[in-house]
Every structure is written in C-alpha cells, then in structure tokens.
Amino acid sequence: MIGIGMEGSANKVGIGIMLHPEDGSEPKVLANVRHTYNAPPGEGFLPKDTARHHRAWVVKLVKDALKEAKVTVDDVDCICFTQGPGMGAPLQSVAIAARMMSLLWGKKLVGVNHCVGHIEMGRLITGASNPVVLYVSGGNTQVIAYSSQRYRIFGETLDIAVGNCLDRFARTLHIPNDPFPGYNIEQLAKQGKRLVDLPYVVKGMDCSFSGILAASDGLAATYGLGGSEQAKLDAEKSALNTEESQDLDAKPTRADLCFSLQETVFSMLVEITERAMAHVGSKEVLIVGGVGCNERLQEMMGIMARDRGGSVFATDERFCIDNGIMIAQAGMLAHKMGLNTPLKDTICTQRFRTDEVWVKWRDD
C-alpha cells in the first residue's frame, strides 16, 4: 500500500510518500519533500501570505515527491491531508489540493490530526512502544499518553505554545527566521553563560508561557537588546555615555537571554513530563514536534529519564519539523482500518484536539 501525505498547517508545506509492505514489514519512506515560507526578521508569518505560498508550491512538491519515490498515480492507494489543528487559510489551501487530487485520480481521502501524525511518525522512527509523549511545536504544547484507543492529554499550555514563545522572542531580537527561529535561538543560547531569573509557571500538569515571554521582552527592551542591528548599536552608544556603563559586564547579553529562556521553559516541560511518567508508570519519553529537535531539551529530558531508569526517544529535523510523511503514516494506519474521510467531511478545523481521534489501529 502506498499513500501520499500532505501537510500545510503552518508555514511549511510538505508532501510525503510512504510504503506499507503487504507482508507487514516495517513501513518505508519513499519521498519527503517540503518548502518553508520565511517571513523577514522581526516579523511572523501571516495566514494569507502563508496560504499564498502553499498554493504556489503544492503542485510542484507533489510532482517532485512522485518523481523521488519513483511511483505513478496508479500506484497510490490513498491521499492523506492535515485536517487540523493549525492556521485556517494554510490548512484550507492544502486541503483543496488534496480534494482536487482525490477527484482527478479517484483515490480515497483521509483527514489526519496533525498531532497524531507527529506521534505515529515518532513511534515508527524511534521504535518506542508505549511512551509518554511530549508534543512541543509552534502551535501546540501537550503531554500525552495512550489509553483505550485514544491519545489522552495529561497536561498542556494554558496560553501560548512553547514554540510560539521562542519564535516570538526571536522576533523581538530580530533573529532571522531562516531556517527557523527556534534553531537560531538554540545556537545563540549555546553562547550564553549567565542565567537570568525569569517566571517559572507550572500549574499541576499545565504550563503558562505568556508571562515568561513578556518578562524576556521586557529585559531585552531594558538592556537595548531588541530591534534591528542599528537600534542595538545606538543603545550601546547611549549606554557608554551614562554612569551605568561602568557596569556593562553585569548586564545580560542576547545570548544570556536566549540561554535563560530555554533553560526555564525546558525545565517546566521536564517537570510535567516526569509527573506524567510517574502517573502512568512509564519509563519511556517520546519527544515530537518542531521544538523536539532542540538538543538541549533532549539533553535535559535524558537526564530526568535516566534518573528514573528510563530512556528518551527523539528524532532529527527530517521527522520533528512538520512534514508530509507523518501525515501519510497516520493516514495510512487509519485507511487500513476503513477510517476514510468522505468528501463532504473534509472541512478543516483550527481546533482539532488530539484526544478526539479514535486510534482504532492500536489495541495495546
């Protein structure tokens, strides 16, 4: 069985092609192509601009994926697409392309929950059997565990997602969005030496990131670290003309702020993940989502897991960052169970909860 996966919930449009062998052996990735819309430094990506980008690239990427996979339309069994959650206009752009392909080629459609796609791809690549899942991305932050054919949410963000927190602080510092802001924050954080005190907000199994973002933005403004390069140079020149300039060494740098932000938010995530592990009696942690690529988060989670006699499973940017193969994988698992999506039900929703999905393909 061969399936095409189409992802476009945020600023990346991805097309993936997966093969599920008839003999039941491990699925194979045949193609994984994507293209990213990057806004200028200091700006976020708007839904209308992102949707325009997806419409311009989706057909080319489908052709590229078919060529890379060395398959034809006749070989394809189903077309899987992200139905939600995500940004409305980009979601709709890719969904329309999926409907068009379904009607032209006479193939079944499968609407996929974006979060479940991340989880199923992570389970496949890492081999984690039944882990506690930390799902961290630009739009979502959830601690998840499987039970009774549902992915149950044990804890989540109460406001913005951790990836959104990092992205928006990158915007404050005018850190480039290419390849993606979280990666550039991570590289700058590696140069940080000073841990600045920032709000730490954990409420039971839930987290809040809006306060720590506001505090970080405030510190950047106080020390003249935000804005364009010219603005930072002007602020530094002004500081040299004050008495406070004698104590420049005591002031945090941009790297210090990135380091402090990462250390604080990741500590919060490790805490709620450990609490979920204790609750369900699991020794496995699977980190999925774009922020899951962060090496420091993986390191901190690994320290916690080892102290509990457990282990951490994570993937690289090919599978962590939004992609088409994760949609193909989750969609094909549903397709095998007969869980196809009629054309009239292929509407997209920006709010599609992880625990709404009937995980019929799992019975463990």
Explain how this protein is built.
With 364 residues, this protein is an alpha/beta fold. The longest helix is centred in the last third of the chain and has 27 residues, at 254-280. The two termini are 23 Å apart. The chain folds into 2 domains: 2-124 and 322-356, Nucleotidyltransferase, domain 5 (2-Layer Sandwich), CATH 3.30.420; 130-318, ATPase, nucleotide binding domain (Nucleotidyltransferase, domain 5, 2-Layer Sandwich), CATH 3.30.420.40. Helix 1 (47-69) runs parallel beside helix 2 (88-105), helix 3 packs across helix 11 (324-336) and helix 5 crosses helix 8. Helix 2 links the parallel strand 4 and strand 5 (108-113). The protein has a 5-stranded mixed beta sheet with strand order 3-2-1-4-5, sandwiched between helices. A 5-stranded mixed beta sheet has the order 8-7-6-11-12, sandwiched between helices. Strands 9-10 form a two-stranded antiparallel ribbon. It is built from 11 helices and 12 strands. It has helices at 47-69, 88-105, 114-126, 162-172, 181-189, 210-222, 229-239, 254-280, 295-307, 317-320, 324-336; strands at residues 2-7, 12-19, 28-36, 78-84, 108-113, 132-136, 141-147, 150-156, 202-203, 206-207, 284-288, 311-313. The chain is globular. One of its GO terms (biological process) is tRNA threonylcarbamoyladenosine modification. Its EC number is 2.3.1.234.
